[in-house]
Amino acid sequence: MPERSTLFLLLGIGVLVALTAGGALVYWKRSANAQKYLPTLNAAEDAYDIPRDLLARVAYQESHFRDDIISGATQSSAGAQGLMQLVPKWYPGVNPLDPFQAINAAAKSLANYYQQFRSWKLALAAYNWGPGNLAKNLNIPGKWPQETLDYVSQISADVPT
What we know:
Strand content: under 5%
Largest sheet: none
CATH class: Mainly Alpha
Distance between the termini: 43 Å
Number of domains: 1
Radius of gyration: 17 Å
């Protein structure tokens, strides 16, 4: 039997492999809430020609599929609400606390941002930072907030864009 330190090293390598490109595609799908919304998220991706699991990964990044966020019990400091973290003033007529309305609104926005910026990574940046901010600062190095850089990087690491 291998020594204890060897077992811990192997376990650590296994965890590392699971969190890299090959394994990263599944860790966020494991919760019951992810499974509950994944069919609707994937259907919206199909309807709006969004790459598979990109919108689903946005949902995870925004809410981690947490009940307190989805229900609106927890809001962001910017007033974003629900599964897709929509700010009500930017989505009139959409109830951000209705996951199915929020998924459709988010899919439509993400697809529109892709049409505007011709890149899924830029569409993600627009979803996070706002399309106006992105358009004004698109080619200005150092102007993007770290939060947006991290957002795009984290989602892009999990889903081919």
